[in-house]
Write a structure and sequence with these properties.
Elements: E1 5-9, H1 16-30, E2 37-41, H2 47-54, E3 59-63, H3 80-85, E4 90-93, H4 96-101, H5 106-118, E5 122-127, H6 131-135, H7 139-150, E6 170-173, H8 187-205, H9 207-212, E7 214-218, H10 226-230, E8 237-240, H11 247-257
Parallel strand pairs: 1-2, 1-8, 2-3, 3-4, 4-5, 5-6, 6-7, 7-8
Bound molecules: phosphoenolpyruvate.
Phosphoenolpyruvate binds near residues 179, 219, 220, 240 and 242.
């Protein structure tokens, strides 16, 4: 049985002070909720303050990106040891906005993911087709390239981790045309993509590990559409952008996703 996982990607929003207000409210809204893993991913500048508010709560801390080297001459980058210093447990890698605006490729996503795993962080690896690719019937081909590229060299090349431990990776299927647009994939469209991704994972890690990997849907998730998405057999949660910026709507999504 896969525990649902709901993660909030705050993107380039919230100062440290605003972040504290949001997470204090969220903490009250979801106190004592069980049957769901809850993650918030504030901007780097708010990680420390949010981390303090989240101590001994049921909300885990995530980051929106990470660099693969631990330290060195890489101006502007943030490493896994730096994230862990703030109690970060999850990190988003390969978000479509990083791929689209910051030149991320499957190769660099793979490096980030491997650095995260090597340091015991749980990567949330994002994949998804854009509108032109969907309209050209390329969705499965794009997903295959992104999943295989992002997970290249695993598990054999990942020192110290067995195939079974690979189940800590979270995959987020995020059709780019649905992100921030108000256009959600229908539950059956999302299910078709999730089942395809799980099949790819089975080829890489074997069927048992593939069955335990959680695959989130992302793209204009709201309190109104989450239940229908979660009713699909291969949808194990959501990566939520806009609706995670208000405690009430994020809490409503979390509540609806609980087993
Ligand atoms: C996202 O940022 O990953 C996302 C899915 O955003 P939104 O929920 O706003 O579409």
């Amino acid at each position: 049985m896969r525990t649902p996982i709901i993660a909030g990607n705050w993107k380039l929003n919230k100062t440290s002070r605003e972040a504290i207000v949001l997470v204090e409210e969220l903490k009250r809204e979801v106190a004592d909720l069980e049957g769901v893993d809850i993650v918030v991913c504030p901007p780097f500048t708010a990680l420390e303050s949010v981390s303090e508010v989240l101590t001994e709560t049921n909300i885990a801390l995530g980051a929106q990106n990470v660099y693969w080297a631990d330290s060195g001459a890489f101006t502007g980058e943030i490493s896994t040891p730096m994230l862990k210093d703030f109690g970060v447990q999850y990190v988003i890698v390969g978000h479509s906005e990083r791929r689209q605006y910051f030149g991320e490729t499957n190769e660099t996503v793979n490096k980030r993911l491997r650095a995260a795993l090597a340091h015991g962080l749980t990567p949330i690896v994002c994949v998804g087709e854009n509108l032109a690719e969907r309209e050209a019937d390329q969705t499965f081909a794009v997903l295959q390239t992104q999943v295989q590229g992002s997970l290249a060299g695993l598990p054999a090349g990942q020192a110290g981790l067995t195939c079974d431990e690979m189940n800590k990776i979270v995959v987020a299927y995020e059709p780019v045309w649905a992100i921030g647009t108000g256009k959600t994939a229908t539950p059956s469209m999302a299910q078709e993509a999730h089942a395809f991704v799980r099949g790819l994972l089975a080829k890489i890690f074997g069927p048992d590990t593939a069955q335990s990997v959680r695959i989130q849907y992302g793209g204009s998730v709201t309190p109104e559409n989450i239940a229908a998405l979660m009713s699909q057999p291969d949808i194990d949660g959501a990566l939520v952008g806009g609706a995670s910026l208000k405690a009430a709507s994020f809490a409503a999504i979390i509540n609806a996703a609980r087993k």
